[in-house]
Design goal:
The protein has about 270 residues and is α+β, with helices and mostly antiparallel strands. It contains 5 helices and 15 strands. The protein is about 25% helix and about 35% strand. The strands form 4 sheets. Strands 7-6-8-14-15 form a 5-stranded antiparallel sheet. The protein has a 4-stranded antiparallel sheet with strand order 2-12-10-11, with no helix packed on it. Bound molecules: cobalt (II) ion.
Length: about 270
């Protein structure tokens, strides 16, 4: 799994892009945010429902896309993949300038529920911006009565990411975080006991998420010490893997769209 994610990141850079967040591959009941540690030896197995979530930036402008691979084409997983993909296609079909985000949520939810499955309530699509992977508007996968509405306006960029499960439709945190973020405005200065080059390497992510394996140029214990120092300073955000509450498998599909004056453009197709 680590080789796949590192291969994705190497290919992004080979093509002249930047890695907007460490490639993540969450299997089965893990819906999102599983990111291989530097020494992760986990292998994909027959029957896995394997998500692959990829972020690319060019000069800070981010796109976010994900797909799900039904490893070995397990029949039990086919409907989940189909539901996530159909929901994404339907939402892309419904998106246009002036359309309400609530319309997208309704379409996403309907496509998944009509197959007898549940969308993930507490995972959302989102706006993307410069050096920013998540910003307004949220694009919920379930239509909630109290959610604020938002109309798609030309120039905005949104990631739509339906998740389908035959479980509860909610995720909770699971395991140790392997994805981190330091907000760009955080004053790093000098961190006691941390090499200035390592502080500079963290600052170079410019507020984008990162993983320990992207800091492999530094000794692992120094990286751990730096993360601990950033945490003590109160500037480190951590993202643990997110697991379906009943332990049921989850499929995901995701594309990033640019809203234009006369329609939309899928940036990640
Ligand atoms: Co996303």
């Amino acid at each position: 799994m680590r080789e796949v994610c590192e291969g994705v990141e190497a290919e992004i850079e080979r093509q002249g892009g930047g890695v907007a967040f460490p490639a993540q591959s969450s299997r089965n009941a893990l819906a999102a945010h599983y990111c291989s540690a530097p020494d992760d030896e986990t292998r994909y197995a027959e029957g896995d429902l394997a998500k692959l979530d990829i972020g690319v930036h060019v000069d800070g402008w981010v796109v976010d896309t994900a797909t799900t691979v039904n490893v070995g084409d397990a029949p039990a997983n086919r409907l989940l993949v189909e539901a996530a993909e159909a929901a994404l296609s339907a939402a892309i079909g419904a998106a246009a300038p002036g359309v309400s985000v609530r319309t997208l949520s309704r379409v996403l939810e309907q496509e998944i529920r009509r197959r007898g499955l549940r969308p993930m309530r507490n995972l959302c699509g989102h706006g993307v911006g410069r050096w920013t992977v998540h910003c307004a508007p949220a694009v919920p996968n379930v239509l909630a009565p109290g959610d604020p509405d938002h109309l798609l306006t030309p120039g905005s960029v949104i990631a739509i990411e339906p998740f389908a499960t035959d479980g509860s439709g909610e995720v909770g945190e699971h395991g140790m975080p392997e994805v981190f973020r330091v907000p760009p405005a955080a004053p790093l200065g000098e961190l006691p006991g941390v090499a200035p080059a390592l502080v500079a390497a963290v600052a170079a992510f410019r507020g984008l998420p990162f993983a320990r394996r992207q800091l492999r140029a530094f000794p692992p214990d120094e990286v751990q010490a730096a993360l601990a120092a950033l945490r003590r300073k109160g500037v480190l955000q951590s993202y643990a893997a997110l697991r379906e509450a009943w332990g049921r498998p989850v499929a995901q599909a995701e594309h990033t769209l640019l809203v234009r004056d006369d329609g939309i453009e899928v940036l990640t197709a």
